[in-house]
Design brief:
The protein has three domains: 110 residues, Trigger factor ribosome-binding domain (Alpha-Beta Plaits), CATH 3.30.70.1050; 95 residues, Chitinase A, domain 3, CATH 3.10.50; 180 residues, Trigger factor, domain 2 (Orthogonal Bundle). Strand 1 and strand 2 form a beta hairpin. The protein is an alpha+beta fold. The radius of gyration is 33 Å and the shape is elongated. Strands 5, 6, 7, 8 and 9 form a five-stranded antiparallel sheet that branches. Helix 2 crosses helix 3, helix 4 packs across helix 7 and helix 7 packs across helix 11. The chain is built from 14 helices and nine strands.
Length: 473
């Protein structure tokens, strides 16, 4: 057996395997001994039929083909091992038919993991601006709380912008009734998007009990091409008009918002909550900046199979989120008016970026000699459980699950280390370590441990031969 490996393509290895006919003969003998155990031959005990009889039953070529597939499998795995290749998918075979008595050559094109060459990541520096909360931000939050707590009171006057009206509404486009609503509430606005755009201008000025018929033009960019740019005929009757009554911003208002005795106590609580949120946002931005620089400075070549695996992961993540809204992925594609192929093409750039980021972090973990303990794994699984995952123990994980969790934790720790490096020369020396610790704490599990992400993996042992009903936006 002669094996030649072509690595001219960094993300693919072409294995050319040349076999002597004698090797095929021996392999066919082994194949016969296996096949004869599987077939019941009249007149012979199991496994005792002569080869000539079995060849007449299944065909001589079938026995040689069985032996060839065994040779191909062993040659492939031996070449992968001897050349220290890391397959990231199954090989693509170029395997011609067998010619009896002749040597045999086949080619296996294997997608492999190319080595990642990191840039000078120790030189990455990200300045973290101090986080502050202004009085104006607190005032804006209080105003939103005030508006949310507002009471709506009926008024005896024509409807105005910002009023809440209840209407019976019929919208027709041509001969089609697009919407037929009864006792439907709208808050009147000057900028309503969607199919009801322009409606509010005609309702403003109407009193309770008044009716109106009018025409609008549905926006050209409306999602439904059958309606976009068309004229809509309205029939509207106003049932109620209500105005918003806002509370005074005082201690009494504060008491309605929780366990606050004074408005000052409520302001202090808003300030702390806003600060906490802004600090989390700042850490996330810091992490993104550092990771972007790490990836941009690295040489990362990836095979498309890794990107396709990442797309599968992204679709699983989207499917889980949709299930919370009682939608399935096919319904989502219909709403988006996209085919599966179009959706996969759309997410290709993000999937590519995610693969490169993970590979860069894995390379950083190697460079920094980051190790993972059994305690790290169990802590990760415990966090996974708290965010809704299935309770698991590290000792019960299979090999694929353990690899998945370990790789994830190593990348999380590498990211925390990267943040520490990127912030080590700030005005306050402890800032880098604090930011890194926060990153490590925030990196909660998001991919189920029982569903490994598409990453460098072992090759398998075998060589693989609506209709529209608008509502108030």
């Amino acid at each position: 057996m002669k094996v030649t490996v072509d690595r001219s393509n960094e993300t693919e290895a072409a294995l050319t395997v040349e076999l002597d006919w004698s090797e095929l003969e021996k392999a066919s003998d082994r194949a016969f001994k296996k096949l004869v155990q599987k077939y019941s031959v009249p007149g012979f005990r199991p496994g005792k039929a002569p080869r000539s009889i079995l060849e007449r039953m299944v065909g001589k070529e079938a026995i040689y083909q069985e032996g060839l597939e065994e040779l191909m499998d062993s040659a492939y795995h031996e070449a992968v091992h001897e050349n220290a290749l890391i397959p990231v998918g199954q090989p693509e075979l170029e395997a011609p038919p067998i010619e009896m008595g002749q040597p045999y050559t086949f080619v296996a094109r294997v997608p492999v993991l190319a080595p990642v060459v990191l840039g000078d990541y120790n030189a990455i520096r990200i300045h973290q601006e101090p986080v502050e909360v202004s009085d104006e931000e607190i005032d804006a939050t209080l105003e939103r709380m005030r508006e949310n707590a507002a009471k709506w009171e009926s008024v005896d006057r024509p409807a105005q912008v910002d009023d809440r009206v209840t209407v019976d509404l019929k919208l027709t486009v041509g001969e089609k009734v697009v919407s037929n609503l009864h006792d439907n509430e709208f808050e009147l606005t000057t900028e309503r998007p969607g199919v009801f755009a322009g409606m509010d201008d005609h309702i403003v000025g109407l009193r309770v009990g008044e009716r109106a018929e009018f025409t609008t033009t549905i926006p050209e960019d409306y999602a439904n091409p059958d309606l976009a740019g068309k004229e809509g005929q309205y029939e509207v009757e106003v049932k109620t008009v209500k105005a918003r009554e806002l509370s005074e911003l005082d201690d009494e208002f504060a008491k309605t918002q929780g366990a606050y005795e004074t408005l000052d106590a409520l302001r202090d609580s808003i300030r702390q909550e806003t600060l906490t949120r802004k600090e989390a946002d700042a850490r996330r931005d810091l992490r993104e900046q550092a990771l972007n620089e790490l990836t941009a400075d690295a040489k990362i070549e990836i095979h498309q199979s890794l990107v396709e695996d990442e797309k599968d992961t992204m679709i699983r993540e989207t499917t889980r989120m949709l299930e919370q809204s009682r939608l399935n992925f096919d319904q989502y594609l219909q709403i988006m008016n996209k085919s599966l192929e179009e959706y996969r093409a759309e997410i290709d750039p993000e999937a590519t970026a995610r693969v490169k980021r993970d590979l860069a972090l894995t390379a950083l973990a190697d460079a920094e000699s980051i190790e993972i303990s059994d305690e790290d794994i169990q802590n990760w699984l415990d966090v996974f459980t708290t965010v809704g995952g299935k309770p698991m123990q590290a000792r019960t994980l299979n090999h694929a699950q353990l690899d998945n969790v370990t790789s994830r934790i190593r990348r999380d720790k590498a990211l925390a280390r990267l943040v520490e490096i990127a912030t080590q020369e700030q005005e306050h020396p402890e800032a880098g370590a604090k930011a890194a610790a926060a990153v490590a704490e925030e990196e909660a599990p998001v991919e189920a441990a029982e569903t490994p992400k598409a990453r460098p993996k072992r090759a398998k042992k075998e060589v693989p031969a609506a209709s529209e009903q608008p509502a108030d936006e």
